[in-house]
Design goal:
This protein is of the alpha+beta class. It is built from seven helices and twelve strands.
């Protein structure tokens, strides 16, 4: 790589609870509190499988989930990582289009689609909220398509790290997923992902902070990489 500078089914445990969400958008999400239940998922445990009936929506409260599917040639493709605050299943029709599993132990809020639909019929704010969330999801999907279609391996890694940083505290990036997970998300091999991380470390763009965390020490270098795409 050129220098950076040169550029089986398991049913999760459930318990009822009233939940307070972060305000975004506050009115619609807050109205869902009264019909939510807590779901706990273990690491590598499935929340649901591809093809299961899409009877619920979910919101991640704590932990990280991944949405994945098997391609025709047997390879795994990860379509998204779901972090705290992300919704899962809003784009599903009658069945879920992919399997969702725990990358870490996770806590989610589960919403019955039937109850959400009934509440939305009474409260238009909920419909507006869900439509907004779906639009954001489609926008993110389009960005991922561009990322996979036009970026080099290093540019993909840079974009991935910046995205996680922007969804976190902008300085430290939690990486609970494996290098294989990252490769299956970005369309790269595990070896390519590992080489890219080693290069970024050697050029002091990122710094290892632990087994599952890095600090971005030169954000401008990462941003320059994504601009080159």
């Amino acid at each position: 790589m050129p220098p950076v500078a040169a550029l089986h089914r398991h049913h999760p445990a459930v318990s009822p609870i009233a939940v307070t969400f972060r305000p975004a958008p506050i009115d619609g999400i807050a109205m869902l509190d009264r019909i939510g239940t807590v779901v706990t998922i273990g690491r590598e445990e499935p929340l649901f499988y591809e093809g299961d009936g899409a009877e619920c929506y979910y919101k991640v409260v704590k932990g990280v989930m991944r949405g994945c599917t098997l391609l025709a040639d047997g390879r795994r493709h990860i379509g998204d990582f779901f972090l705290a605050g992300d919704f899962i299943g809003l784009d599903a029709d009658k069945t879920y289009p992919f399997t969702v599993e725990g990358v870490t132990d996770a806590t989610l809020i589960r919403y019955s689609r039937r109850k959400v639909d009934a509440l939305a019929a009474q409260e238009p704010q909920i419909t507006k909220c869900l439509v907004g969330l779906m639009r954001n999801g489609l926008s993110s999907a389009r960005q991922r398509m561009a990322l996979l279609g036009h970026m080099t391996a290093m540019e993909r890694i840079a974009s991935f790290l910046l995205d996680l940083a922007d969804r976190g505290d902008n300085a430290r990036v939690a990486l609970p997923m494996t290098r294989t997970d990252i490769g299956d998300y970005l369309g790269l091999t595990m070896e390519t992902v590992s080489r890219a991380f080693c290069q970024l470390k050697s050029e002091h763009v990122i710094q290892q902070q632990g087994v599952h965390e890095v600090a971005i020490t030169d954000r401008s270098a990462l941003e320059e990489l994504t601009k080159a795409a």
